[in-house]
Task: structure prediction
Amino acid sequence: MKLNKLVAWFGALSCLLALQLSADTVYLVRHAEKQGDSKDPPLSECGRARAQALADYFANIPLAAVYATPYQRTQQTAAAVAAAKQLSVTDYDPNQSGQLVAQLTAQGQPVLVVGHSNTVPQLVRLLSDIEMAALTEQDYNLLYRVELGPQPGVTLRRQTFECDKQASE
Result:
């Protein structure tokens, strides 16, 4: 009797893992903290540490692709994850959201998209048809997980990484 319960438990666990790692999952995150307010600033020390924390988070999550806009801050945020996964970063045009959504839905495998405060909520809405609150200039710790399919869902997770602002200044 105990063996039957154990087998059933493992069966349920494997189903949950299969759902979690389904081929129709899109992760979206805003770039990490930037250095200055120029048109194309690089990541700050804190931003580089956050990008590495993001790579650590994805260590055991399979990804087929990593997408980022062509700006330094998004490329540098995406690079940490892509390097750990031995992937290249695929550029996308932040002004062509519909084209990116078509690429993502055709991908058929889990992917990460690194965007901006004004594009990430928009992409989540386009992928899920679920309205998202706008991001402020201080929101760097939100990770969106969009499950595609007949009934799309969105999971919002706050990254546990916190930068020691005094140490990075």
